Amino acid sequence: MLALARTSLTRRAGAFLATFLVLLFGAVMIMAFASMLDTAGQADLISSGGEETLTTMGSVVGGWGLCLVAFAAASTIGLSVRQRTAEIALLKSAGAAPAQVTRMVVAEAGLIALVATVAAVAPAYAAGSQLLRLLVDTGQVDAHVSFAFGPIALSIGCGVTVLSSVLAAWAATRKRARSRVTDLLLDAATDTGQMTWKRVVSATVLIVAGVYLGVLTLTALRDKGPDAMPVAGQSAILVSVGLALLAPGLVRLATAAAGRLFMHRGTAGYLMVQNLRHRTGQAAAALMPVILFTGIGTGILYLQLVENQAAAAAGYTATNEQNNIQTLNLVVIGMIVAFACIMLINTIIAATLQRAREFAQLRLAGATPSQVLAAVRAEGALVVLTGIVAGAVAGMCTVVPYSVVRTGQWIPTVTPWLFVGIVAVAVTAALGAGLGSARRLLRRRAVEAMA
Amino acid sequence: MPGSPSALDTDQALCLDGVTKIYRSAGGDVTALGGVTLALREGTFTAVMGPSGSGKSTLLQCAAGLDAPTSGRILVGGVEMSGASEAELTKFRRGRIGFVFQHFNLLPTLSVLQNTTLPLRLAGKRIDRRQAVEMLTRVGLGSRLDHLPSQLSGGQQQRVAIARALVTRPRLVFADEPTGALDTRSAREVLGLLQEAVRIDGRTLVMVTHDPVAASYADQVLFLADGVLVGRLANPTAAGVAERMTLLAAGVAHRATAAGRA
Predict the structure, then answer these.
(1) Among A304, A326, A328, which Cα is nearest to A133's?
(2) Domain assignment present for B29
(3) Within 13 Å of residue B189, how many CA atoms lie on the same side as its CB?
(4) Is A445 on the interface with B (CB under 8 A)?
(5) Contact B108 A278 (CB under 8 A)
(6) Which of A18, A108, A244, B261 has the most CB within a 10 Å radius?
(7) Could you say which of A274, A368, A450 has the minimum Cβ distance to residue B90?
């Protein structure tokens, strides 16, 4: 099976590129943060304050990055397995036992993750040493601390990336490998993205936990001032991940609403609604990163803005040190948000390139290339809009409680332009990736694309 | 002989005038069509046959506007197929040309009825639900309007594809191995429906096939070898077609051997 997995990988290099890139960026991020723990391990070199900063940076921020990477690996690999339903049916009808199919897909995922981790070492080393320099420059770590990149970075980076990939592949394949061939072929044609109760329960737990932290910020942490920031910040992350897990349900809701509005207004709307109704799973895979990007981006960045405003109102003049800390926070948040954005672009390109056959069929039925693009645009717009609304809700779980605690206002009176910027990036990245890939597919003749 | 008419009548349902198709590749140019000239009358059923690699699919794709010929003219109902862009070609095909493919090519996310009305919707025409239902009833699927393609058998899917090809009332219908993926009984049903479209509705049908039985449903069979028309058989029988095909295959093999020796 390992040999089969290797052949399958080399023959379909393009199809695996998306998974590889997400895992690569993820591993770089995890290892860069984890190397702070390696650096802190050289305890004799460091004054106690610096060590604490490094440990916090490595474990807390790195921990969230790690969750995000595990989630990204699961969703990217889940999408790639879903796209291979027809291939799994073929293997099974050729006599492959369920366990053989599962082993092949899991071995493939493991190989990709391993290669991605190895490729990530050099860039992670560079990113980690930059991070340390930033900590030194902002005066939070002694200048004489030397950078270390060792067992912790390597083991956590490799462990998380490979383990979450293998688990995701196993979970996604297991059910398919056991299904009957005919059911699989039906699944390959349409993908209604039914939600399992496990998914609904995990999502509910995450959302309740997120809202609970928001309430905690409003009550127990009311007088703690800036110290409430880490707790408030986690609300948005938890609720974002929870809503992302509910993506198939959100797609169905949005499709039902859009169905009333657009079903009878033009071909693009009609095709969009039909496609989303029957390919909910694919659209949900694209929706997830939009929610994560918007939710985490809005929540954490506005948290910092509200804090700045509160500090200014209290008459503190920002010291040089405070400015430095703020810069550092923004860099760290920026890394996580950038990763969510990369995942967004990657997922949408992978999901769109998979549709070559469908686009060709539409054209053979009489659709012009611009009609196909209009349908892709309508679909992308609905997915992005849904993601922005869900992301904004998640972001508010952080921003509203913290704003009440620090400024007494439900809605902070800080600039709305940051949100506009986040929305603009989400829209540009999602529609740009989707329409760009669709255009590439439409350049070939329809009969060629069918072959 | 359709390959050499004295004066090409360009007002016919379909007219090809010196059509060539050359695929350029690194290993040298491959001539798929070496100058095909033919004219097909309104309301006729023509089968195109030939050994594999004879260029019959290329001929169909060029004639149907799915691929651009390297040189030569193609006229549908006296109007020259023009348009450099995909969009222009698509608009030309709509309403003039219908297709039936070997692998049905129904949209998996659309129901039987929605697949049938899709060409009308894409062309921005009014959707006559009753007419579409009538068409589907005629192909025997009037009770399966809301099924998805994946819930139908191959034969049923191909019948939906025929209803879809006919719904725009096109002058010309092209069928590329329409029975290639079907069992004998479904194949007979499909061929009967295609024949009906010619006899009753007066459509002009061009079908590529490798099956002598399928070809025997046509009014005439055109034989293609190495990208040129090499023969014609009117009122074909399955046995007669099979005999000509055997000769043709032998001739191709002979020519290949001769070329190899030279």
Answers:
(1) A328
(2) no
(3) 17
(4) yes
(5) yes
(6) A108
(7) A368
For the stretch A112-165, pLDDT in tens is: 999 999 999 999 999 999 988 988 888 778 888 888 998 999 999 999 999 999
Among the partner-chain residues B86, B93, B121, the one whose CB lies closest to the CB of A267 is B121
Contacts of A442 in chain B (CB under 8 A): 86
Q: Mind listing the pLDDT tens digit for each residue in A53-109?
A: 787 777 777 777 888 888 888 888 888 888 788 888 888 887 788 888 889 889 999
| Interchain contact, A358 vs B164, CB within 8 Å | no
User: Nearest Cα to A430, choosing from A333, A341, A370, A335?
Assistant: A341
Q: How far is CA B22 from CA A49, A226, B58, B86, in A?
A: 75, 73, 10, 20
Does B171 reach chain A within 8 Å, measured CB to CB?
A: no
What is the number of domains present in chain B?
A: 1
Q: In this structure, are residues A342 and A396 in contact, taking their beta carbons and an 8 Å threshold?
A: no
Evaluate whether residue B261 is within a structural domain. no
Within a domain: residue B64? yes
Enumerate the domain spans of chain A.
1-189, 193-451
| A&B contacts, CB < 8 Å | 77
Could you tell me which residues come within 8 angstroms of residue A266 by beta carbon, excluding any fewer than 6 positions away? A374
Q: How confident is the model at residue A43, as a pLDDT?
A: 59
Smallest CA–CA distance, residue B219 to chain A, in Å, is 27
Provide the CATH number for the domain around residue B100. Answer: 3.40.50.300
CB contact (8 A) between residue A267 and residue B124: yes
**What ipTM did this prediction achieve?**
0.83
Q: Tell me the whole-structure pTM to 2 decimals.
A: 0.83
pLDDT at B19: 94
Q: Which of A154-158, A326-330, A348-352, B100-104 has the lowest mean pLDDT?
A: A326-330
